[in-house]
Every structure is written in structure tokens, then in C-alpha cells.
Design goal:
The complex is a heterodimer of chains A (about 170) and B (about 600). By secondary structure, chain A is mainly α. Chain A has 9 helices and no strands. In chain A, helix 1 packs across helix 4, helix 2 packs antiparallel against helix 3 and helix 2 runs antiparallel to helix 6. Helix content of chain B is about 50%, strand content about 25%. Chain B has a domain of about 100 residues. Chain B is elongated. Classes of the chains: A mainly alpha (about 170), B alpha+beta (about 600).
């Protein structure tokens, strides 16, 4: 319950005030990687590190992950097809063979159709996701944002002391 | 005003480090159990039979793994384990781990137990290798292991009613009739196409014209023109004769086809007799059938094990260096597939360099186990040496159980050989199918040898049981059972040799011989001779009743058509020759009058 409340607070604050629309959009884009690709894959350690170290909105990343996880499940057959196609291309065989036989890189699981397909699809969709989410945040803040901010539910959540915990990772 | 927010959030370094520390703690707490479950699942999937692992311990500093209380269920007998091992120690080469490859440099086993009873029966693995092998061998059984004693049918032969659609001979007769019709039409068309009628008529008319012609009135040029016409017709007659000879050759091919068709019909009728006999339940008492029917099932159950291991090797030790697709790891998301890209001069994805175990055990049995495994690899071509598995169990210095397997998958064609020996131990009892008798071989010797080259395999199985005993269900009133019991009671030993050859998709040959076959076949024939003869007679009569009209009609039509074609060809040959010689004769007469001025 505590975690859920904190999550809710962070998401609301993200949408209303924390960070610029670009920071939130970058967070959503990185979070989309966690949602679209299999979570327990080595490349997601890099994504998590990027979310933590880059000055992007962590709340945005959580939103991105929550939004895109079901999408990832739905698109698994597409990822499988894309991955299988890429791994089967004769002119890329040299690349995959090198990746498969190179220390550390081989741990990436890029020889798995779902992992490769989802990472490639995320890379292709990253820019559209960034642009769309940035526009979405701007539009939200200029339209329904003010109404939500004045609602008593928002005030009740925002007033919770737990909100202070979130500030540690708030974008500067 | 430009945005001066910093790109990096350095203060997140500490939480990130904490996060990684947390991940490391989770690894320390749960890695062993996660690996145990993963190994258990993977081994169960690979072997197609339940594999249980009691515990796993990872030694990160030594790059080693210990596996405890491993039990592999017998793929074909869920009530027992094929092998139980108390403890396995693996030493890994750490460098390949960075490439997600497992190279086991040393493997040691502690306490090996074979064929121990399970507390709970193993859960079958649906669609697993064992299940698939069983299905495949069951199909062989259906094809080769016909029940021996349908002898209950011998003492009371049923009524058999056939219809034409059940008989191969009727189908062959109908086919023959169609061929006959086609050949008749073809022969007639062929002769018509030669235009023999008009040519003969022209030849006759010209011969008469030449006969009536007066060279004095026609003059030299008129006579020369007439002779020229005659020469042209003679040439055409000769050409027609040659064409007719060719047509005759073609027609004779067709006639031979009809003759073959008649033989086919006869063969089909013989097959129909057999089928009708089997529909009556009459047993086949030829020697090969007796051996196969009595001992085919038990032979196949042993051969099945060889096929299982060969199939396992074929599937998981593939030859060559082509990319290989395997199912991806199980997870909440779709598993997808993993594609392996082996590369020359690199280590394979999995390589067990060497494993060895030698133990002395058994308080009273005093046995010694010895197991050696070398070069088991997922990409044998990268290893360049065949995989070898050798196991022996010595009891009081004598080998009681032995296994030698060599799997050479280093080239493009996989070659395997297996030699399994089981000596001086109590062999499991087996029932003789279709009979109330169970064989208890007692202490004996079993040997299973198999070799595989590509898709082809050959397996031979021998059983020698010098002190076999036969258990008979005395409640059975089958007269054949009494004969069988009498024959078997006179035998002090049992010797069976079974051989199987074929591909993994279908076997071509399966033969079983035993020292029981001859004696039993003779006794059974004597017992069932009269009844069998009656049954056979009845079956044949029914086949003849249904098929005779078709067969007679087809064979007589085929024979008639053959004669008709031959006659037609001969008649035309005779007529052409006659017209040609008459024309030549007439021309000779006229040209003779002119004193050789005009030559033919």
C-alpha cells in the first residue's frame, strides 16, 4: 500500500510539476525500454543506470514502463518475427556470430528473437515515443492539469509525508 | 534563456550502487535455488523424462557447481529411476562464462545407483523425447508385432462376407480392364493413322492399271510415268510395312503390359487370400512370424531405448557449424527462440571435457562402478573429437553391466555406436503377447548393439537365458496355449536374436529369431492343421466368389485383346506384302516387254 501510494504521488507530481516536458518524455522513452523488452535482460541494467544517472524524470520512466509493459506482451509475436528475421539475414550472420562469441556482449541475449526484436523495435520507436510524450505532457499541463491540481484528491495525496521520500530522485 | 539543467544526476550514484548491491544480495540468496529449478526444467525438457535435483550450490570463487541428489526417471518405466547420483561436482572454465558458454573441465560423481525404485511414479513429459520415441516404436509394433495367437479363432471359424471394394484383386482386375480398353483404342488409332486401307486400295488399283496398260499405246514416256507411279506406291508400301513393324513393337509392349497385369491380378488374389485369412483370425505359422509375434514386443522395448539415446544424441549434438535454433528460456513473456552462432576456433556453447567416477560400494554385493564421459558438446564440430561414454559395473571382478557409446558428430554425417551389456543378473520377466504365458528369464545375458550413420540405424538385440521358466495362467482354456506350454516346457533355455534396420522415420526390416520358433511352428501346425485348412479354404472360397467375375472378365478381355492386336497387325502385314509383290510383279512384266529400257 505504501509503495503504491508513493508511486501514485510520484506519477502525479511528474505530470504536474517535476521536470520539464523533455525530461519527462526522456524518462517515458527509457521506461518504455523496460516495458517493451523482457525485464530481466542484461541490457535493462544499462537502461536502469541511465534512468538513475541521466537527468530524466524517474516518474516519467515509471509511467513509460507501466504504459508499455502490456504493449510489450501484446507485441511479443511481432518482436519474435522481427528478431527471427534479423537473426536469419545472411549478411548479418557475421555480426551475430561476432556478438555471440565476444565476452560480455554474448551475455546480452541478443541471440534471442524476443530480446533482439523488442530492443530493435524500441530503438525505432524511441524518437516517436519521446516526441509524443513530450507533446502529451505539455498539453496535459496546459489543459486538465490545473483542474486536477485543485481537486481535493490531489491535495490529499500531495500532502502526504511520504511525498518527501520521492524528492531524492526528483529531476533538478 | 537557455536551459542550464545538468545532464547527469550524480547524487543518484549512491542509490544505484545500493540497487546493484541489492541485486548481488538477491543473487547470493536465491541463485542456488534458481539454478536448481532451471537445471531441473532444462534437463527434464532435454531428456523428456522427469529429472529431480535435490540441491545446487554455486562456488563463485572456484567457478564450480555442486549438484546433489540427482534422480533421472527411467523414460520408459515411471516407477523406477534410471540413475541416481548423490553428488556431482563440476569445475567450470571461468572465461567461457563471459560468453554465456559452459565448459566443464572436470566432473566427479559420488555414489551412483541404477534402476532404483521411485517413491512416487515419475510424471510423464508430454511431447517429450521419450513420449515421441514411444509413439514411433508403437507404430513399429503395429506394423511388425502382430499378435501371435488368434488361435481362439481356429476352433470356431467365423463366417466371412466380403465385398468387392475390400479386395485388391478386384481393383487390379478393374485396372487391367481399363488398360485393355486403352490399349485396344490405341492400337486401333495407331493402325488407322498409318492409312493402310487407302494405301492398299491404291496399290491394288495401280496394280490393275499396270496390268491393263499397253506400253505400245502409252509410249515410252507414258510407260515411264506409270512405272514411276508404281515405284512411288511400292516405296510407300515398304514404308508402311516398316511403320507397321514399329507399331507392332509398340503394340507388343502393350500386350506384355496386359500379360503383367494378368499376373498382378493373380498376385493380388493371393494377397486377398492372406487378408481374408487374417480377417478370420487365422494365424500365420511361418517361422519368421512366430519369432516376431512371440518376442517382437520385448525386443522392441529394448531397441526403443537405443533409439531414444540415438535420437537424443542426434538432437542435441548436431553435426556441422550452421546456426542452430533452440527454444528460448522460459519467462513470463514469450520465450522466443535462441539462435546459436558457433564459430571456428571458439569454444562451443556447452562442452563437458571430461567426467569420471569410480566407486566401490555395496556391503555384500561388492561391486565397483566406473563411469567416464568425455567431449560431450553442443557443437561437436568445434571440439573435433567424438564424444565417449563408458560405464561398467563389476561384481566380484566380473562385468555385470556395461555400456560403451561413441558419438562422432564432428563431420557432416553423424555416426554413433552403442554397445550395452547386461550379464548374470536377473533379467525382467516379460509376457508373450496374445498368450497367457509369461517368461521369467532369470539370470542371463542381454546385449544391445546399435549403430547410426546419418538418418540410418541398425540395432541388434540378443537375449540368452539358460534357465528360463515359464509362468502360465492356468485359467486359460485356449487350446493353443496348451501346445505352447508343452513346447516351451521342453526348452531349458531361451535364445532370442532381434535385428532392426531403417531410418528414424520408418524401419525397413525387423526380424526376430529364437530357439522356440521351429518347434512351436511345427507343433502348432500339427494342432491346428485341419482347422487351419478349413479356415483357409473358406477364406479362399469367399475371395473367389467375390472376385471371380471381375477376374475372369478382365483376364479374358486382356487375352482376347492381345490376340486381336496381334492378328490385326499380322493381317495388315500380309496384305501389304501381297499388294507390294503384286505391284512389283506387274511392273516387272511391263518393263520386261520394254527390254529393260525402264527399270524399277
Amino acid at each position: 500500500m505504501l509503495i503504491l501510494l508513493r508511486l501514485l504521488q510520484s506519477l502525479i507530481r511528474t505530470l504536474h510539476s517535476d521536470g520539464t516536458p523533455a525530461q519527462v518524455a526522456a524518462g517515458v522513452t527509457l521506461g518504455a525500454a523496460l516495458g517493451l523488452t523482457p525485464l530481466l535482460s542484461p541490457h535493462n541494467l544499462v537502461v536502469v543506470s541511465a534512468i538513475a544517472l541521466l537527468n530524466v524524470s524517474v516518474g516519467g520512466a515509471v509511467i513509460g514502463m507501466l504504459l508499455f509493459t502490456p504493449v510489450g506482451f501484446l507485441l511479443d509475436p511481432v518482436f519474435d518475427y522481427v528478431g527471427a528475421t534479423l537473426l536469419g539475414l545472411p549478411w548479418l550472420r557475421g555480426l551475430w556470430t561476432a556478438v555471440y562469441n565476444t565476452p560480455i556482449l554474448a551475455l546480452s541475449n541478443f541471440n534471442n528473437t524476443i530480446v533482439l526484436g523488442s530492443v530493435v523495435c524500441w530503438a525505432i520507436l524511441a524518437f516517436p515515443i519521446y516526441v509524443a510524450s513530450r507533446a502529451g505532457v505539455v498539453r496535459y499541463r496546459s489543459t486538465v492539469g490545473a483542474k486536477v491540481r485543485n481537486s481535493r484528491y490531489y491535495k490529499a495525496i500531495a500532502a502526504s509525508r511520504l511525498m518527501t521520500v520521492y524528492r531524492l530522485l526528483r529531476p533538478e | 534563456m537557455p536551459d542550464r539543467r545538468p545532464w547527469f544526476r550524480w547524487k543518484a550514484l549512491a542509490p544505484l550502487a545500493l540497487f546493484f548491491a541489492f541485486v548481488a544480495v538477491l543473487w547470493g540468496l536465491f541463485a542456488d535455488s534458481v539454478l536448481r529449478r532451471s537445471l531441473q526444467e532444462a534437463a527434464t525438457q532435454v531428456l523428456g523424462t522427469q529429472v529431480d535435483i535435490g540441491w545446487v550450490h554455486i562456488h563463485e570463487r572456484r567457478a564450480g557447481v555442486e549438484i546433489g541428489e540427482l534422480a533421472v526417471a527411467d523414460p520408459f518405466d515411471p516407477t523406477r529411476n534410471l540413475i541416481e547420483i548423490d553428488r556431482i561436482r563440476l569445475v567450470l572454465d571461468p572465461r567461457p562464462l563471459l560468453e554465456k558458454k559452459i565448459v566443464i573441465t572436470d566432473l566427479a560423481f559420488e555414489r551412483i545407483e541404477l534402476f532404483a525404485a521411485r517413491e512416487k511414479p515419475a510424471t510423464p513429459v508430454e511431447g517429450g523425447l521419450a513420449a515421441r520415441t514411444s509413439t514411433m516404436v508403437d507404430q513399429w509394433r503395429d506394423r511388425f508385432g502382430e499378435p501371435f495367437l488368434g488361435m481362439s479363432a481356429v476352433d470356431s471359424i467365423r463366417t466371412l462376407v466380403l465385398d468387392p471394394s475390400q479386395l485388391a484383386s478386384v481393383a487390379a482386375a478393374e485396372r487391367l480392364m481399363r488398360q485393355t480398353d486403352s490399349l485396344g483404342v490405341l492400337a486401333a488409332d495407331g493402325l488407322a493413322a498409318l492409312g493402310l486401307d487407302s494405301l492398299v486400295a491404291e496399290g491394288v488399283a495401280l496394280a490393275e492399271r499396270v496390268a491393263r496398260a499397253d506400253p505400245g499405246r502409252l509410249g515410252l514416256s507414258g510407260t515411264r510415268a506409270l512405272v514411276g507411279d508404281a515405284r512411288s506406291v511400292v516405296n510407300r508400301l515398304e514404308a508402311a510395312e516398316e511403320a507397321l513393324a514399329r507399331a507392332e513393337t509398340a503394340a507388343m509392349v502393350g500386350v506384355r503390359m496386359l500379360t503383367d497385369g494378368i499376373e498382378d491380378v493373380e498376385r493380388a488374389r493371393t494377397a486377398d487370400y492372406r487378408r481374408a485369412e487374417s480377417m478370420l483370425g487365422l494365424p500365420d505359422l511361418d517361422l519368421p512370424s512366430v519369432g516376431g509375434a512371440l518376442f517382437g514386443q520385448v525386443s522392441l522395448s529394448y531397441v526403443q531405448r537405443a533409439v531414444y539415446w540415438a535420437e537424443l544424441a542426434r538432437r542435441y549434438l548436431p553435426p556441422g557449424l550452421r546456426p542452430r535454433v533452440v527454444p528460448g528460456p522460459k519467462r513470463l513473456r514469450a520465450a522466443g527462440t535462441d539462435v546459436r552462432f558457433p564459430k571456428e576456433d571458439h569454444v562451443p556453447s556447452f562442452h563437458l571435457v571430461r567426467g569420471e567416477a569410480s566407486e566401490v560400494g555395496g556391503d555384500t554385493a561388492g561391486f565397483r562402478h566406473r563411469l567416464t564421459v568425455t567431449n560431450i558438446s553442443s557443437e561437436p564440430a568445434l571440439v573435433g573429437e567424438p564424444a565417449i561414454v563408458a560405464f561398467s559395473r563389476l561384481t566380484a571382478g566380473t562385468e555385470t553391466l556395461g555400456l560403451d557409446a561413441v558419438m562422432d558428430h564432428t563431420g557432416l554425417t553423424a555416426r554413433d555406436s552403442l554397445d550395452f551389456r547386461w550379464v548374470g543378473v536377473a533379467l525382467p520377466a516379460f509376457a508373450l503377447p496374445g498368450t497367457p504365458i509369461t517368461a521369467q528369464p532369470g539370470a542371463g545375458r542381454v546385449r544391445l548393439a546399435a549403430s547410426v550413420a546419418g538418418d540410418r540405424f541398425f540395432a541388434s538385440w540378443t537375449l540368452e537365458a539358460p534357465e528360463v521358466t515359464w509362468l502360465v495362467d492356468s485359467a486359460s482354456a485356449d487350446p493353443a496355449a496348451a501346445v505352447l506350454r508343452r513346447v516351451l516346457s521342453g526348452l531349458t533355455g531361451l535364445h532370442i536374436v532381434a535385428e532392426v534396420a531403417g531410418s528414424f522415420d520408418a524401419i525397413d526390416e525387423f526380424s526376430v529369431r529364437s530357439n522356440v520358433d521351429d518347434a512351436l511352428a511345427r507343433q502348432m501346425k500339427a494342432l491346428a492343421g485341419e482347422l487351419l485348412a478349413t479356415g483357409q479354404e473358406r477364406a479362399r472360397a469367399e475371395v473367389d466368389r467375390v472376385s471371380r467375375p471381375y477376374l475372369e472378365s478382365a483376364t479374358s478381355r486382356a487375352a482376347d485383346e492381345s490376340v486381336t492386336i496381334r492378328q490385326a497387325v499380322r493381317e495388315w502385314q500380309a496384305r501389304l506384302a501381297e499388294v507390294r509383290s503384286r505391284l512389283e510383279e506387274e511392273v516387272r512384266k511391263k518393263t520386261g516387254v520394254l527390254g529393260g529400257l525402264i527399270g524399277m
